[in-house]
Design brief:
alpha+beta; GROEL, domain 1; GROEL, domain 2; GroEL; 3 domains; seven-stranded mixed sheet; Thermosome subunit alpha
Length: 542
């Protein structure tokens, strides 16, 4: 700049900025810290985290996505890895911790290459090619899953180490039965399996319901508490007189007009109840409100009614009973009604529930999940949701892989062979990708109190003979995971590797960060960030 010229500012005052290597270093640091946070939770011997929010509410879990969701993370690069975990949870239901620690390790390996002088673009290209090759290798080592026994093994593997050890076989039975029941044309909608979590009893008292359970009671205590041979009407229409949609006013000039007006309203409600009765319905689930007078008339007709039922519950009742949701009560006919053998209200512990049972081939069902305390029941529910996700994935794809770190070691071994066929610096990136994948067996060993280096060396040697060799964290031996029954859906590994690679690639391609005013911390916080302080913000952009 020539002498005497004024500097030109193109960004608002107090905006912070990092450029080039500094931006990459900060983002990689954030990714590594986040991965280290959840790393200790991986595997059957993984530890739990206690998360306490500003209100003092406690969550105790080793579920990766739950930990990341509950943490107050605002660092942009760390948020990208949280999205990886959420995507993994939505797509598969398990493997969230695996996805995050692989992404963190990919960034760690990339940092070494950047320090060696390898350009981030070359690393990103190498990672992309390595991820594609990893998917091919995964297909080669996958096994076909076609029977109930395989589904049981998948469910048990998913729940091992998640607080459900004492009853994992029983819970696996419930999960497999539930998923197989709701399957339609080879597809499973996990929303059709409803888990009702109730504390106050042993997990062994959990059971599956051949129908739906909703956490609602009768709209009026004078209504029947139990209905046999239920004929079910589902209404989106409120059973009450609608308010005027305009600001129009009704002017009454004498008391008789007021009386006529009231009588007219009552007649409209009587007509609605009569419409329900004439359709043959003896149970009504209404998504909207029900007028007190309507409740009186329904009760007098011996009809059970529940009001303000959640939309998700209405959908499940449709799937379970064959009922059709009616948006206008005048259109309600006998053809719209669903059927159930019995509907009854029951109080369990401190919750009043309505059971819709003995449904004919229901495509939506409920699981009553018990737990001795609130926190135990919550962790059981997370384990059950993971198991439902992996069993559904297995049933849809019919492809599984061995567990215990076996797929990662085998993919890493073959990626190194693939790297030898590539020339240039991209070869280093593919080799780094292979090294990063071995973080999974290393972490499994560390969390079990074993020597990770010895375990990894033994695993590599064992994989010269078989691709199914993995680590048995309970006795520390290298065993055939296929024979041991430790198996996972192929989709879990596929999604984890793909998501981790894409997230790492995206972070590596960032060479400029501009933070708005107020989104900044002092440089001394960078040391805190290494120990998980400072994850709420970004180090300064000089």
């Amino acid at each position: 700049m020539a002498q005497g010229q004024q500097p030109i500012f193109i960004l608002p005052q107090d905006t912070s900025r990092y450029v080039g290597r500094e931006a990459q270093r900060i983002n990689i640091l954030a990714g590594k810290v986040l991965a280290e946070t959840v790393r200790t939770t991986l595997g059957p011997k993984g530890m739990d985290k206690m998360l306490v929010d500003s209100l003092g509410d406690i969550v105790i879990t080793n579920d990766g996505v739950t930990i990341l969701r509950e943490m107050d993370i605002s660092h942009p690069a760390a948020k990208m890895l949280v999205e990886v975990a959420k995507t993994q949870e939505d797509e598969v239901g398990d493997g969230t911790t695996t996805a995050v620690i692989i992404a963190g390790e990919l960034l760690k390996e990339a940092e070494k290459l950047i320090e060696m002088g390898v350009h981030p673009t070359i690393i990103a290209l190498g990672y992309r090619n390595a991820a594609l090759k990893a998917q091919e290798i995964l297909e080669e080592i996958s096994m076909e899953a076609s029977d109930r026994d395989t589904l049981m093994k998948v469910a048990i593997t998913a729940m091992t180490g998640k607080g459900s050890e004492r009853a994992k076989e029983k819970l696996a039975e419930l999960v497999v039965d539930a998923v197989m029941q709701v399957e339609e044309d080879g597809e499973i909608d996990k929303d059709n399996i409803n888990i009702q979590r109730i504390q106050g009893a042993s997990v062994n008292e959990s059971r599956i319901v051949n129908g739906i359970v909703i956490d609602k009671s009768r709209a009026d205590t004078s209504m029947p508490k139990r209905i046999e041979k239920a004929r079910i009407a589902l209404l989106k229409y409120p059973i009450e007189v609608k308010d005027l949609e305009t600001d129009a006013k009704i002017r009454l000039t004498d008391p008789s007009q007021m009386q006529a007006f009231i009588e007219q309203e009552e007649q409209m409600i009587r007509d609605m109840v009569e419409k329900i009765k004439s359709s043959g319905a003896n149970v009504v689930f209404c998504q909207k409100g029900i007028d007190d007078l309507a409740l009186h008339y329904l009760s007098r007709e011996g009809i059970m009614a529940l009001k303000r039922v959640k939309k998700s519950d209405i959908k499940r009742i449709e799937k379970a009973t064959g009922a059709r949701l009616v948006t206008n009560i005048d259109d309600l006919t006998a053809e719209d009604l669903g059927e159930a053998g019995v509907i009854y209200e029951k109080k369990i512990f401190d919750e009043v529930l309505t059971f819709i049972e003995e449904c004919r081939d229901p495509k939506a069902i409920s699981i009553i999940l018990r737990g001795s305390t609130k926190h135990v029941a919550e962790e059981m529910e997370r384990a059950l949701e993971d198991a439902i996700g992996v069993v559904a994935s297995t049933l849809e794809d019919r492809e599984v892989v061995a567990g215990g770190g076996a797929p990662e070691v085998e993919i890493a071994r073959k990626l190194r062979e693939y790297a030898d066929t590539i020339s240039g610096r991209e070869q280093l990136a593919v080799s780094a990708f292979a090294d990063a994948l071995e973080i999974v067996p290393k972490t499994l060993a560390e969390n079990a109190g074993l020597d990770s280096i010895d375990v990894l060396v033994d695993l590599r040697a064992a994989h010269e003979e078989s691709p199914y060799m993995g680590i048995d964290v309970f006795d520390g031996n290298i065993v055939d995971m296929k024979e041991a029954g430790v198996i996972e859906p192929q989709r879990v590994k596929k999604q984890a590797i793909q998501s981790a690679a894409e997230a790492a690639e995206m972070i590596l391609r960032i060479d400029d960060m501009i933070a708005a005013r107020g989104f900044d911390v002092s440089s001394k916080d960078e040391e805190d960030m290494e120990g998980m302080g400072g994850m709420g913000g970004m180090p300064p952009m000089m």
